[in-house]
Amino acid sequence: MERDAHLTVEERARVTEIQDSLIERYVEQKEAIHDRNRCRAIALEFEIKELLREKKKIEHWAAV
Asked: What value does the mean pLDDT take over residues 21-43?
């Protein structure tokens, strides 16, 4: 959590929300794959990538 020292309270809260959402999306994606729902799995992959981009962007700006 050393890197979080440079984040504002709001940024830390958003990163936590993103991490929670990522966990949910990964679980949903695993279920979709298990159910052979390829379209849903692909849609979730896009959501996951977007959340990861947002998290990286927040962490990048906090490091500046």
From this structure: 98
